[in-house]
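dude i think i finally got it to work??
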Amino acid sequence: MTDEFNNTTRVRIWLWLIRFVGVIVPRRLRADWRQEWEAELRNREETLAIWKRLDWRLKLGLIRRSLGAFADALWLQQRRLEEDFFQDLRYGVRMLSKHRGFTLSALITLSLGIGANAAIFSLVNGVLLRPLPFKEPDRLVMVWERRLTSGDANLPVAAYEYREWLEDSHLFDGMALIQPATVNLLSPAPGLISTWRVSSNFFDVLGVEPLLGRTFADGPDTGIDRNIVVLNQKLWLLRFGSSSDVLGRTITLDDRPYTVVGVVQDLDLIPDAFVPLDVRREEQKTGDDGHEGYNVIGRLRPAISIDQAQTDLALVASRLEQQDPANNAGHEVRILSLGENAVGNIRGALLILLGAVAFVLLIACVNVSNLLMGRAASRQKEVAIRRALGATRVRLVRQLLTESLILGIAGGASGLILAYWLTNLLRQITAVRIPRIEHISVDGRVLAATICFSLLTGLLTGIVPALRSCKSSLAGGISEGTRASASPARRRGGNLLVILEVSLTTVLLIGSGLMIKSFSRLISVDPGFKPSNVLRVDLALPEARYQTRESSVLFYDELMRRLRSVPGVQSVTAASQTPLRSNGNWDLFSIEHLAAPPPSEKVYVAVCSVSTDYFGALSIPLKLGRDFTDFDAQQSEPVVIINETVARRFWPEEDPIGKRVRLGSGPWRAIVGVVGDVRHNGLNSQPNPEVFLPFHQEPAASLAVMVRTSGNPSMLVSAIREEVAKLDHDLPAPIDTMDQIFAQSVAGLQFNTLLLSAFAGLALCLAIVGVFGVANNSVAQRTNEFGIRMALGAQRRNILALVLGEGLVVVAAGVGMGLAGGYVLTRVVSDLLYEVSPTDAGVFAMSSVVLAVVALAACLTPARRAMNVDPITALRYE
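look at this
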């Protein structure tokens, strides 16, 4: 009864409002409204009065009968909808099976679009959307430093800085210290594995529980048992066969025994093993500028943002700078979420690829919609007759949409098969280092996305043809069904779809053209060395076995002497870091007789220790001075070679040979040579200021031995491994060719370029089919028109020019829209380009020309068919 009173009140309010709308509403219409509302009010008041006089039993009976009638009506409506749906489904399947050519063309188009979208979405899902397997991963961050005078953006921090952050910051639930390393696993089988030395609270910060055993003990870091190790599940599976007997087992890492105390689940971005790190002991092992190579991972408190945490740590860094400006001036704190830190720069590229493949799906939808519009023209008479027999427009639209949904679902099913194959293909890509790529798969989220793609595709492809089919009048539909000519309105609808399709294709062609031009410029960059016929052998000598610098020097000297005697070897050298694989070893740089700069303007340079003939083996040009020789030993005068970047920066107009410099707090060294710049961090980065030290004066335990060969370097891999084994049979020796390393350095851009070009090529093929389909349908439906034109004196060339002109006008409109869209949208790929403007005029012009030529070729066949129309046959058909 409350609803009745509310309704009565609403009626009275409306009557009151009607009295005040005389200025807007005409008097006659206002009087009609008043009469209707007063009659409604009287009916409601009479019903309310009758209801009040009824006995409560009668009221209950009326309510029961009303609810029963309402339920019966709902049930009948549901049954009617079910019957209509299955009827539409059967009819749609029957109609599609009768037109197999049309159905096959639509299914192929949709399966390509949906399959490509599902595959790229699985890649984005596995890399970007899949949550990291930690407790509340959104609260995990990596804390880095950035020095304005250094070439590296993310630099490790010092242990004492970690302690200050941990004690003074109140926005973190915890912080853990990490020191990555690569060690030799000598048992049960030799091999290189990645390890992290971590503080005891590391697993608590991550929120990880062990699968077997335990992790490191809680409490203070001092006095911790340093000879224990926790294995990652992957290493446990590959090396120990998932045996539970691994607990308590002793393994050898770099000639040191470690006892396995636990196994943690296979975690993304996590190394093979963990060993404990004594933080307080590490605080006393600072380098020349107070810094060692440590990474910091932290867990934010709930509801704390990264910006708040960064501001908080910046205050701590400012206080440290005031206390010790010599070691802390110019250091900026940089915080990244763990997910962002993991994926790096790949996020932008994947999102661009996802947008490009979405364009392909939209083009496929437009193409199929064009096919459906052409088919709807031949069914106009059928639709008109069904309307004449009593079918409503809603009923007809639902029937036609059911057919397009059947196509979308069938295309999604076949596209899912294509996506499964493409996903497996993407997972096998090893040339491109995509983080977490091993986790991509067609999982439930990808399946749900594919279903959404299919349903959305069915709706997008069918809604416009269905509405246009049911829009015309009965007489017009029946009369048009008897004629061959298509109405101008229908042709305009098809042309609009082609314009949209061509514009989207133009944007993709421009994007792929920019990427191709960028890639061609990148690979034409001089890396500063010649990678052909060079092998790189990575070696890391165990500290427990090679405890002195003399033992390391003897090992490398003997190995290089042996390798030089191998047939086919031209030269052998060694270096602590090699081109395109920089280890980020930077040190403070000072110049003799030059005033020390302020602490915030300290100069850092990349430091590399090399043996003799390093520059000759890699064909790095010597610009000034001399190369290192065997006389540059430990007892001789300390010397150094600089690259051109250092020479141009500090001695732009004078000869640097003979000048003395110092690295950190080391001895003063005389510059004896200047060599050409080498792009250590990639072809798309500028050369670092780099300083080279002779290996015999600054030996390193981890060196890469470079072997230049006279022929195919892969043929000498086994011989090189044999020579390494003769000196140390437990020392792993992974070998790569410099050509492979060079290819990996450009593989990311090459991968993006290939995928974007493939999508652009697919879009171009679909656009060709779309233009051809519209032109061909237009010619077929205008046969009588062309016959009349030719009967009235039109020449064949006039008909050819008419068809080609109409097609090129449509294509020109689409290209114009595409150029405007490309001018706006291609800016999103600017971060992926190298020395190419996102609005490059040449690429824009070339894309337009290519599309215009292809569209002209697509229109040529229908145009030739139109010019060969026989006027007598056309008029007889009319």
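Residues 18-26, 219-223, 286-291, 481-485 have pLDDT under 50 and may be disordered.
im so relieved honestly
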